[in-house]
Amino acid sequence: MTDKVLGVILGGGQGSRLSPLTQTRSKPAVPIAGKYRLVDIPISNCLNSGIHRMFVLTQFNSASLNKHIKNTYHFSHFSTAFVDILAAEQTVQNAGWFQGTADAVRQCMHHIVSHEFDYILILSGDQLYQMDFKVMIEKHIEANAEITIATIPVTAKDATDFGILKADEENMITSFIEKPKTGLEEWVSDTGAEMQGEGRNFLASMGIYVFNREYLINILNENEDEKDFGKEILPRAIEQSRVLSYQYEGYWTDIGNISSFFEANLGLTDEIPKFNMFDSNHTIFTRARMLPPSKISGTTLEKAIIAEGCIIQASRIEHAVLGIRARIGKHTVVTNTYVMGSDRYQTLEEIQSETSKGNSLIGIGDRCYINNAIIDKNCRIGNDVKINGGTHLEDGDFELYAVKDGIVVIKKGAVLPSGTVI
Predict the structure, then answer these.
(1) Which of these, 395, 397, 375, 387, lies nearest to 420 by C-alpha position?
(2) What is the pLDDT of residue 27?
(3) I need a labelling partner for 119 at 20 to 30 A (CA). Which of 29, 132, 215, 216 fits?
(4) Residue 101, SS3?
(5) For residues 296 and 92, what is the distance between their CA atoms, to the nearest angstrom?
(6) Is the backbone peptide bond immediately before 417 cis, with ω within 30 degrees of 0?
(7) Which one, of 157, 128, 151, lies nearest residue 139 by Cα?
(8) What is the DSSP track for 197-254?
(9) What DSSP character marks residue 125?
(10) Mind listing the pLDDT tens digit for each residue in 244-280?
């Protein structure tokens, strides 16, 4: 598999639906589960599947993503493995930005084809799932397909947000429609008894594709006006080529907006989470940090995930994820919240100096109440701060925070003075 397959991970566009988390970073660089980045998920799936050569395509706010990949994915000097960034670049042939998923691959193709491979695996950089790509690629080869699309059964409610397709008895895709709003009954598929029992009667594209090398080169060259795989390339290919549906029935979620990001992270605290971080067969790789274990004093913990290097003195942490180096003061309550942590510790001298001036420290202070919130990295939340997200709050974007679907997102590096109420 290592020799036959090359992975390409699409970094996504501006990521406006995930703002303000994407104001200073690209979507794949957004921290998830307290210690990882979103890009670690597709990369780890590839490594666990025996695919060790990958490109990550990006163009917006790519500095932190570049740094993460540079500091994380190191391989032996005697190995051909690599994870490299391909950022949008001006060339003699093209002076513009990536205009879509297919255009991004097309503009980077001169870098990609310099490597030997038979199949190219194209992935999204903003999804949470665990998949063995070896099985998908084997099915692709067995079916003599030119393209394979990973599909997942969804309900009628979710079908309007995805590309929906139909396949014949050999799982060859016969038709495709992007985000259907009407006539859903015509797109019902035989997804199997278990999936149908859950009302998941529609096959949705997961944005995960396998292409034969020469086929992809040809189809991208045939019509350079087609910029997107889902909207343009694939519908045309289905009419002309052998396109296989590979049905996946495990956990998968598209981290497209603040609500889905929030639910995916807090869902990790469930007793038996849908996404299993504790599966030794699906290791999630990330940057190795030399951090001390977390220290917790006088805190009641309920359904909480706490990353390394935290200093916790809160009275209660419930249904929450605390990221690396998170600091939470005495008599504070944190519920239904993702605290991303911080990039550094303050020294004792800094703490004494800031405290003497009445300034807030990095982290969350004493006697705070935080509920239904996302606290981005390096925030300074003073004492006696109350943040209570919920449907009673109107959506809006403010200087220090934003509200989306009732979730209060404190912006990266924001300073909330003591006594602030949101």
Answers:
(1) 387
(2) 87
(3) 29
(4) helix
(5) 57
(6) no
(7) 151
(8) HTT--EEEEEEEEEEEHHHHHHHHHH-TT---IIIIIHHHHHHHS-EEEEE--S-EEE
(9) S
(10) 999 998 999 988 899 999 999 999 999 999 999 998 8
